[in-house]
Request: fold
Amino acid sequence: MNAPVKKKLKVATTSLAGCFGCHMSLLDIDERLFTLLEHIEFDRSPLTDIKNVSPDCDIGIIEGGLCNAENVHVLREFRKHCKILIALGACAVNGGLPAQRNHFPLTTILEEVYHTSPGLANGMIPNDPELPLPLNQVHPIHEVVKIDYSIPGCPPSGDAIWKVLTDLLAGREPTLDHDLMHYD
Amino acid sequence: MSQKFSLDGQVIPFEDGETIMQAATKAGVFIPHLCYHPEFKPHGSCKLCTVKVNGRQTASCTMRASTGMVVENNTEELNGERRALTQMLFVEGNHFCPSCEKSGNCQLQATAYHLGMMSPHYDHFFPNRPVDATHPDFFIDFNRCILCSLCVRASRDVDKKNVFALSGRGIKTHLIVNAASGNLADTDFSLADKAAQVCPVGVILQKRQGFAVPIGERTYDKAPIAAQREPEMEGAPK
Reply:
């Protein structure tokens, strides 16, 4: 009798207030991507260009923190549709570099960028309804939705991402040893 | 050397007057700590070194060893509480490791690695703490202060200068500089000071020295904090 075909896990990924460095690190698992693709299929992700998360997604991987209203919307969509949510990298974990704006008032920052800085003649603060509104402060994602696992690092190494994903696929609690654990 | 106590089942010898921390360190057993430094009188404030002595929690840096004590140190329960304390330290300040000069040589970061801290877990305070860059040779980045008071003790007890103090109470406790202006430039703080060498995190930073040691060669890149064999070198710039 033939064994039943093992269902591939659906994995969605996104970059919120991040720099895509963590996604580059995901690609750094190199040829192990082929092994990974024997076990998973990508759902919504910059790698597939699918725009919405499938309702039965298994794992959501979030790079970046929350700097605007759209980030919050996307994060909530991921939480709603993914069984497991992973914070990938320093910005998702603690706000990272974008959160270093947090002790400046938002108006001061917008003034500095669009009015005071040289380079823009007649600079105006963008106010198109298409543009998501910035949040007063940048927040790590665990402050808004429940996060199941975190992978620290700026970015986490491909090996660290591989370790956590393979731990999860094998049904183990993910851990990182000293050589893979880095906050920088 | 006939006096002994038990630490996680291991027999640890000690001499009269030694604390659990001192005896354990001598025996090569690591107890996580941040405000303790072997050269200074213990402060007992960070609580990372909390152990269970005969079933009761106490700070191992202040508790003197006594014969027959049964001490628990490296247990899931204690390490879980230490991890929670470390997470609280991370969210109370602004600890952005990727842009910190101390990263890789930082005891707070290395301790968090040791305790398997994968995220800060709690909501961040994102406090507003301006940097003092007035001194010609040093920055004081208050964002990273964990209130260990090592600079206070070093400046007061070794340098005899009293440059630093902890001010305020409870959640409002903060590090201050002893000058009318509050600026480090208006003190006699200098490169030769012991207080310039003891900061376990990235608060007291020598100017023009940042990122001199590449990633991979920094103190805690090479070996985890629990395996460092020269605790007296803790916090010293490389």
